[in-house]
Amino acid sequence: MALEEITTLDRLAELLEARPRLFVRWSAGPEADLSAPNSTDGLTGAELPGLSANPLAVEPWWGDRSTVLWVARRLHDYSHLKRARAEGVRPWVLEGEEVGRGPDNEPLVARVAPVALVGKQVLDEATGVIERERRGVWGPLDREHP
Q: How many whole angstroms from its chain centre is CA 24?
């Protein structure tokens, strides 16, 4: 599957501005996910009706803040998944239909269409942006590492 690899936050922001209903998913990648397009609740084992993902859409309350800062935050919020899950986990961007909510209130996306892969350098760039823009305590949404 030939997908664009996003190499800068600017490019991710540009993509989001052109296609505002995108999601980001942390996993082994689209090929692995599309072979079994349903997530599973880790606590109960229940099969979910789509893939767990996080919306990239900029919320109206964000105001005139930059889209680059928004996507940096969205990547940073879940960056702990890279180390919390199996080897090879990375973020990738997708489109699809939101069909429900998962156990962490995350969107569940069906009829998934992969859009792009997110390069490691984008994660590093996001961390840098977050460090510069921090206005208080702001870390990944990591249950195991407070």
A: 3
Phi-psi group of 29: left, alpha or beta (phi > 0 → left; psi -120 to 50 → alpha; rest → beta): left
Between residues 145 and 96, the one the model is more confident about = 96
**pTM of this prediction?**
0.86
Token pair listed for 7 = 């190499």
Q: Distance between CA atoms of 90 and 32, rounded to whole angstroms?
A: 12
Cβ contacts of 111 within 8 Å, gap of 6 or more = 96, 97
| Helix residue ranges per DSSP H, 19-139 | 30-34, 67-77, 81-84, 120-133
Residues 96 and 51: their CA atoms lie apart, in Å, by: 10
Q: What's the pLDDT score for residue 142?
A: 46
Structure tokens at 79: 């960056």
